[in-house]
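Lab notebook page, bench 4
Experiment: in silico fold of construct C2
Operator: M.H.
Input chain length: 128 residues
Purpose: comparison with the prior construct
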Amino acid sequence: MNWNFLDILDIVFDALELFGSNSSSDLSYHEKPKKYFTEKLSAVFLFSSGVLFFFVFKDPLSSEKYVQTLIVASLIGAAISFLLFFVLHSLEKYYFKSVFQWLFFSVSVLSFFISLVLWVYFKSGLFV
């Protein structure tokens, strides 16, 4: 059997990489691990939707068909959210480590887009 010196080095380096790989050694000194990115993004969405809901509901709403307006705005916000979820799923970015992360992210995105549509509807004056 004909052994090549580079084949032996390749086997040795593969074995060292297998036994010596450490997740902390893969990161450089200046890189930080991306922990809790989903929770932070969900919290930002939830906070911003709370602010938008406050601006929408702090004054009495001047709409003739109040319930119908809320339902239509909620459906539009849900459609935009589902479109975002589909795009994330198509890009293979819509996966979560736990059910809590999935629910927290989904509910916060839904509430953000519903509050955004309501804010645009009531505060912009385009539709009233």
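Observations: The helical segments are 5-20, 23-26, 37-57, 66-90, 99-123. The chain has a mean pLDDT of 80.
Next step: discuss at group meeting.
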